């Protein structure tokens, strides 16, 4: 758990809110991901052709929690009347949830374990480095530019490391990717983001597990590692189906055998 200014949490939610998928059959992507490590709380969202990541400093632990977009919007409204908020990542009654409280006022947001995986760290690692060769200008529409309206006061757009994406930054605590419509400086946009994009592993019974990673047991069930266990704690995993059942990793290994990581 940690305490955060409501304005700081609202700000990172606002920065990623424009990045929402549209069209049919996107319920599994219609989310805002809150992802915490020891130094940063990240808000992550992906649109039809964009990825946006905003962060703010916290003294937290390691966990990841996708929230349905409507639940994230309700949380944003609740924060309007708050000042300093206590944030708790909880596994209660076999379900994963986030609780936000200030004095006697509180709201609990269910974690949408059924949402699709959003491999934002691997995407940033792949795209946000300097390009290997010079490129010409890229055409963006006013609609494209409007998506980054709340990212910050000054927005910088540069070519990405691969052929398809642009990198969008706004100060040291916002980074995103934009797929350009058809139609240079070689600066490493990941400078200062090492702690945020670093993979977070822990060992259990000699096997490495990554926080946020998806794993399949021999019975075909898929599990997500949602948090790194603290000292003396047993690691747990969460079913990615709508049941969102939380089980000790040891119990899943005993029944389902070795867990195989799913590539993203």
What this model shows, in words?
- The chain is α+β, with helices and mostly antiparallel strands and 264 residues long.
- It contains six helices and 18 strands.
- The strands form four sheets. The protein has a seven-stranded antiparallel beta sheet with strand order 5-2-3-4-11-10-9, sandwiched between helices. The protein has a five-stranded antiparallel beta sheet with strand order 17-16-15-14-18. Strands 1-6-7-8 form a four-stranded antiparallel beta sheet.
- Strand 16 and strand 17 form a beta hairpin.
- Helix 1 packs antiparallel against helix 2.
- The longest helix has 11 residues.
- The model has no long low-confidence stretch (mean pLDDT 89).
Strand order of the largest sheet: 5-2-3-4-11-10-9
Low-confidence stretches: none
Mean pLDDT: 89
Distance separating the two termini: 29 Å
**Strand count:** 18
Strand percent estimate: 25-35%
Order of helices and strands: EHEEEEHEEEHHEEEHEEEEEEHE
Instruction: Specify the structural class.
Output: alpha+beta
Overall shape? globular
Largest sheet: number of strands, sense, barrel closure: 7 strands, antiparallel
- Rg, rounded, reads 19 Å
Percent in helix: 10-25%
Number of alpha- plus pi-helical segments: 6
